[in-house]
Design goal:
five-stranded parallel sheet, single chain, Alpha-Beta Plaits, alpha/beta, Rossmann fold, 3 domains
Length: 567
């Protein structure tokens, strides 16, 4: 295929003919010059100089073995030891059969015997050697990661399978290595330094894995996969690797985390083995004082449980096992708190497992993309419920729905939300959108563009979980939002004069200067309510007023608030 493309484009490859006899150089030149750009050398020393000068353009060397100064064997040895020159294929020119084995061991690609009597065979061998070499360069380019030189994930998995076939009785460990808070390294010290960190890590990993006779790849960003023979001192190896990287970088702040699936089960595919190691690596974040985590039976049970939840999601949507509950929000700016809106919250009532916590299934669905299906279910239910309350009671209760980071990348998001509002006869201002702070910080420019379009349509947007991420004050001033929802962890610990209370007061004051209202969630006590009210908070929600309730129970809150009778 590549050769056909070259012929179509009439591209001549460069070939070096090396022979100390003029007649031999002339004969080969006559045969191949029709298809190739030929240069000549009459000894090994001259040849080496020409090879170095033309290393980027040279496609093949045709090399006589018996020459003065540097002979063919020595030149082969030099070329094979040089990473930049090793890619150039060499066809050995010889009349001695005994030279073939030694030449192959030194890296020769092919042979042409003297005397030269069949031009067609010579041309075919030249063409084939160049084609194989150039195809191999392309394969190598896709086989290795461009930045680090380690294997790519796809080739790594293939080599792991081959390793298993060659060493069926060798017990192996699957390991996933990650840099802690790598995004902060890029943010604080620049992407170029981040790349230096990755290349340094790759070099240290490569050396370590070579000693242990294993395999390694860069999976993505700062994630590395390692497949090595089993040992019980992986933590020590991690410490040694970390120290090695710190020493080479001259920077002590870097820390690593490691997930290990020991004695990996070969009855499952290699990708799944590393999924387990990856799960352990992710779990390590929650283990204080340790830099590694081992995959164990409890993780396996949890993994099976999560797999069951994923597989049963569609059925749960069809059979209405998911229910939308509503937690009231109360405006506390006046003398008496007044019901002002509600937040739609999902609940899963499994027919066999019972009530499943949202903290269990929402993060799970966020990681595999299923959250969009769930969000759309909640959006439809909430829009219909606003309409039902208005038809039944003659009052409109605005409802806020959560919009996940994945939803923000959906090109149909705007039209989908507008259709829901229109089909239920709602005012746009009554359908509120909550977007988490982390969604803004992960890709602020994209998020801001999307939010600006939604607000231009008339939607009001609240930043949810404010204070749980890393938003800067400068970024906060640039964000297009209508309200801030204080993360409940701030509210939980507030008391008169406490640091948390001072921080909450400061955030409320900043929001006031920016012209946005403040919603505090997780309010459970009279003291929290009074402190927030005195600090100037606009709206609160939490168990102090009501836990999330099904629509029929929310009916009673509406009846009480507006002094209505249920009919």
């Amino acid at each position: 295929m590549l050769e056909e493309m070259r012929m179509e484009k009439n591209i001549k490859r460069q070939v070096l003919v090396v022979d100390d006899e003029q007649i031999n150089r002339d004969i080969l030149g006559m045969i191949i010059s029709r298809n190739y750009d030929v240069i000549y050398a009459e000894d090994g020393s001259e040849a080496l100089q020409l090879i170095k000068e033309n290393s980027r353009t040279l496609s093949l060397v045709m090399l006589d073995l018996m020459m003065p100064k540097i002979d063919g064997y020595e030149l082969l040895t030099i070329l094979h030891a040089d990473d930049a020159l090793r890619r150039i294929p060499v066809i050995v020119l010889t009349s001695e059969k005994s030279a073939e084995v030694k030449s192959l061991e030194l890296g020769a690609a092919d042979f042409i015997t003297k005397p030269y009597d069949t031009p067609e065979v010579i041309l075919a061998r030249v063409q084939r050697s160049i084609q194989l070499a150039e195809d191999n360069v392309i394969i190598r380019a896709t086989e290795t990661d461009e930045l680090t030189g380690l294997l790519t994930k796809e080739f790594f998995f293939q080599y792991c399978r081959q390793h298993d076939e060659y060493f069926p009785d060798l017990v192996m460990d699957a390991m996933v290595l990650n840099v802690n808070r790598f995004h902060l390294i890029n943010d604080l010290r620049g992407r170029s330094f981040g790349n230096i960190v990755l290349t340094t890590m790759a070099g240290c990993i490569k050396n370590t894995v070579k000693q242990l006779e294993g395999l390694a790849c860069r999976c993505e960003s700062d994630t590395f996969y390692i497949y090595i023979p089993h040992s019980n001192d992986c933590p020590n190896k991690l410490n040694m690797l970390t120290e090695m990287i710190r020493e080479k970088l001259g920077w002590r702040s870097i820390s690593l985390r490691l997930g290990i699936y020991q004695e990996a089960d070969r009855s499952i595919d290699v990708e799944e083995r590393f999924d387990r190691a990856n799960l352990a690596c992710s779990r390590q974040r929650s283990i204080y004082g340790s830099s590694y985590c081992l995959y164990d039976t409890e993780m396996h049970k949890r993994e099976l449980y999560h797999e069951r939840l994923i597989n049963e999601m569609d059925r749960a949507l069809r059979e209405k096992h998911f229910k939308v509950f509503y937690q009231p929000k109360y405006n506390i700016r006046g003398e008496m708190p007044r019901l002002s809106s509600a937040e739609a919250l999902i609940r899963w009532f499994h027919p066999e497992l019972g009530m499943i916590s949202p903290g269990e299934f929402i993060p799970l669905f966020e990681t595999n993309g299923l959250i969009q299906k769930l969000d759309r279910f909640v959006w439809r239910e909430a829009a219909e419920q606003i309409r039902k309350w208005r038809e039944r009671f003659g009052v409109t209760i605005p409802v806020s729905v959560n919009v996940s980071r994945m939803d923000m990348y959906d090109p149909d998001l705007e039209s989908l939300l507008l259709d829901l509002v229109k089909s239920n006869g709602l005012d746009i201002k009554d359908y509120l959108l909550e977007i988490t702070e982390s969604a803004y910080t992960n890709d602020s420019s994209q998020m801001i563009k999307t939010v600006e379009k939604l607000r231009a349509d008339g939607f009001q947007v609240e930043m949810d979980d404010f204070g749980s991420g890393y938003s800067s004050l400068n970024m906060l001033a640039a964000l297009p939002i209508d309200a801030l929802k204080l993360d409940m962890r701030f509210v939980r610990n507030i008391s008169e004069g406490s640091k948390d209370m001072k921080l909450v007061s400061m955030m409320i004051e900043i929001a006031g200067m920016l012209g946005v209202s403040v919603v505090a969630e997780g309010v459970e006590t009279e003291e929290q309510y009074r402190l927030l009210k005195n600090a100037g908070c606009d709206v609160i929600q939490g168990y102090y007023f009501s836990r999330p309730v099904p629509p029929e129970d929310f009916d009673r809150l509406i009846e009480k608030e507006f002094d209505l009778s249920l009919s």
